[in-house]
Structure formats: C-alpha cells, structure tokens
Amino acid sequence: MTDDDVKYRNRVELDTHTKDEHGPVASIHFSPSKGEQERTTQLAKIAADILRKAGARDIHRNALSDNFYIHPKSTMQMGKVIDDACEAYQVNRLFIADNSVHAASIGGMNPTLTTQAIATRTAKLLVEKYF
To answer: CB of 76 within 8 A of CB of 100?
Structure first.
C-alpha cells in the first residue's frame, strides 16, 4: 500500500448539487499523478523483496481498482503497545488515539466514528490522570 501524491485535484468536497436528508453529499475527486503507477510498482517490488528476505515463500499482489480506499490501523494496538487509556507502556505521557490503536485489522471500512470516540475518551482519561 502506498500513499498518493498530495495534489489539490485529489480532494473531498461537498457536492452542492447532490443532497440527502443531511444536506450536501461528499464528492471524491482523484486522478493519479504522472508516474504514480510506476512508483507503486517499484514500491511493490521492494516490499516483495523484503518479504522474501524475511522468509516468505508465496507473495500475492492484489490488482486493485483506482477507486479502492483503505484505512490502515492496528500498528499500535491497545493492550500490546498502549494500555487501556491509550498511554504507551514504554513512554510515559505518550498517548496514541488514532486508527493505529484498533485491536486487529490492517484496514477496512471507514473507522472515523470509532476513532473519534477513542480520541475523545483518551482526552478525558489524560485530563483525569495528569491535570
């Protein structure tokens, strides 16, 4: 998985012509930058090389469409890297309250509401503990 080049044309904005019961609907604008496919292919080759050196015998690369979006999570799992208040075990006063604290997933459906709830709870616990 790689990131996209930061370009204004790649954005989310409200479509004032399309509405639902909550008002204007979000519209996603995305077009790959020149050379992005080549960069992604090169990074996939590097990743495959790393996996082979780590002992992988079979490596499969998904051919995903241009409109596939994923929300990475779980790199700082609660219970493994941070405690139940989202404070790091090895660094006092380091609180982590983003998608990385989710229990088990490399990505999937939009985790925004869950992440907002974790961040709000973490802020409350941080204030109670240190202030």
So the answer is: yes
